[in-house]
Write a structure and sequence with these properties.
- Two copies of one chain form a homodimer.
- Chain A is of the alpha/beta class and about 350 residues long.
- The first copy, chain A, has a domain of about 190 residues: D-Maltodextrin-Binding Protein, domain 2, CATH 3.40.190.
- Chain A is built from 14 helices and eleven strands.
- The interface between A and B is large, with 82 and 82 residues.
Chain lengths: ~350, ~350
């Protein structure tokens, strides 16, 4: 370790150990920080990128200008999928995206976004804040010099747009579908050919029949992309992404260099943004659903029970296969499953039972 | 208006209009505020009172000691149910409780906590932050000089503990049950004799048969009260309180006197606390449910469909009766119902459909 690095680490550690802002040395408390935050989102991407910009603006105001965060959309400073590396290496101090984008580097990261048939937003937040989830996430990101926070959640997504009707599991066979991540791996077991494709290319590919199906986000974002003009069958629920958590990642050395009160401002604002983004998704999705149904005569369809049951079995096989090859994945999988099982038991007599009761 | 009052209001208005902390006059930005917050909760009441204490501590740290909030539990400074008046009159600057406690003063307030068969936590938050709910709430509290914020949510509660089995709606007839608010009014239509009773008295009353049934909160708080020793039948779901929002209320003149950056700190911390409290309820409830089931052999039971359907009909009658007599209630009821209807449509293909899919 170089002398410079050593001094930096010591300084970082002592800032992190300070128990309250009042105890911070005056010079550190008044120091001004100008940070860069890169995201994996297109410029002006509603809710996602817009939510990050609001977060940065708020922190500047709350900190009285002591922490200024300059926000860059994917590609403006670095390519979107280099966000993790750029923050890890300290090229920039912060990033916003989703942990499952980094599955290639660290498969265990996927549990911190969403796994098929896993927990919804409410379950994920309970796990992160009071069930040990965030501690595990920090452990998984530690070797990369990254400190993660949950910041945003899309809620349950839609199952996707299909150019033909899905009546049984064999109807999926041979379909080319834009579906990333674990959802794509599970679909592959049903004979789907999962393809990766950036948001901007999806509409044309679907409209021209280059792909037969696509998932995107939910009614609000799907409506904006015009997908209802390119495919007729709109399926629910989004079994593959039942409440994806978005992430704020911070370079751990940069984080340690912040005085304790600025750390708390970032942490609290990220928590508030976590709820605000989810609430915005909910409110905009319910409006967009009405527009799709009334103005564009879109009829939503439920995946048949056989299809869902089979995809659920394939999910378990897929997760078990990865766990057999990856110790860290297996560790997080076990912790996740333990919390999820209890959460399911509680959910089945609270939220799920209540949802049933209202429909009687 | 006195000259002093006028100057104070002008100062408040200009602070509120300031667009950023950097634009605040330096003297206002460095002024120190010491505020009192009274709650409706018992001292050390887990999650509720503890969450408020964490909120106050965090604000002190974030604001570098510029805003100190002294927290008092119900009865420590003033009786719990005088919280609304004390904050309204400016005796103290802040309060924490639940809007439906003030139904006697302003019936419309009930929609900002929970109404039977109404929205769950996720729906309430979407309504507050992005569906016009919070604007309506401010309008309803304006005549009282109060500025409200959502701050905490219990999630779906349990239906309650009964000393006898409920198999049909007529089994409720003649029961004495501790159930406050609209839930009690609805139960009364089924022949229940609803009684009010402070938390500390419930166990003994139920154990001695002074009451036949009680609702309280959820598994975590119910376990702590030992209710499983006093009644055998533990029913779900909590149709009467499907995601009660807790409230932070601030005296509007005190609020206007805060510089913009301190206002933002309070607002952001309240939003973060809103999510943290809900997450804590979820995590602690799922643990407590396991304890109740495994250690104390409690068997949870679902209210029969006929009971739920009838209570749902009685709920509509109850709300319509109040709306017919109270214009403001009617206004909020209409806005709430409009949002709820769209939220239900979205929920039925997102959260509810996903909950079903996982159980297949």
């Amino acid at each position: 370790m170089s002398r410079r690095k050593f001094i930096k680490n010591i300084a970082g550690a002592s800032a992190a150990l300070t128990t309250g802002a009042l105890a911070s040395p005056a010079h550190a408390a008044r120091k001004r920080f100008v940070w860069k935050l890169v995201t994996t989102w297109p410029p002006n991407f509603p809710i996602f990128q817009e939510g990050v910009k609001r977060f940065a603006k708020e922190i500047k105001q709350i900190s009285d200008g002591r922490l200024t965060i300059q926000v860059f959309a994917g590609g403006q400073l670095i390519p979107p999928l280099q966000t993790f590396d750029a923050v890890s290496q300290g090229t920039v101090q912060m990033g916003h995206g989703a942990a499952y984008y980094w599955a290639g580097k660290v498969p265990a990261a996927q549990f911190f976004t969403a796994v098929p048939f896993g927990m919804n937003a409410q379950g994920m937040n309970a796990w992160f804040y009071y069930g040990g989830g965030l501690e595990l996430w920090r452990e998984v990101y530690k070797p990369f010099g990254l400190t993660p926070f949950p910041m945003g959640n899309t809620g349950v997504q839609m199952g996707g747009w299909f150019r033909k009707k899905i009546e049984k599991i064999s109807d999926l066979k041979g379909l080319k579908m834009r579906i990333p991540g674990l959802g794509g791996k599970v679909m592959a077991k049903a004979g789907v050919n999962p393809v990766l494709m950036a948001g901007g290319e999806i509409y044309t590919a679907l409209e021209r029949g280059t792909i037969d199906a696509t998932e995107w986000v939910g009614p609000y974002h799907d409506l904006r992309l015009g997908l209802y003009r390119a495919a007729k069958y709109y399926y629910y629920p989004g079994w593959h992404e039942p409440g994806p958590t978005l992430e704020l990642i911070i370079n751990s050395k940069a984080w340690a260099s912040l005085p304790r009160d600025l750390q708390l401002i970032v942490k609290t604002s990220a928590t508030a943004s976590n709820l605000l983004m989810l609430s915005e998704f909910e409110a905009k999705n319910l409006e967009a659903l009405r527009t799709l149904e009334t103005r564009y005569k879109v009829k939503t369809r439920e995946f048949p029970a056989e299809v869902i049951k089979t995809l659920h079995q394939y999910t378990k096989i897929t997760l078990d296969e990865i766990a057999a090859k990856d110790k860290l994945f297996s560790k997080v999988y076990n912790a996740y499953e333990q919390f999820r099982t209890s959460n399911d038991a509680w959910n089945s007599i609270s939220e799920a039972a209540y949802a049933r009761a209202r429909k009687l």
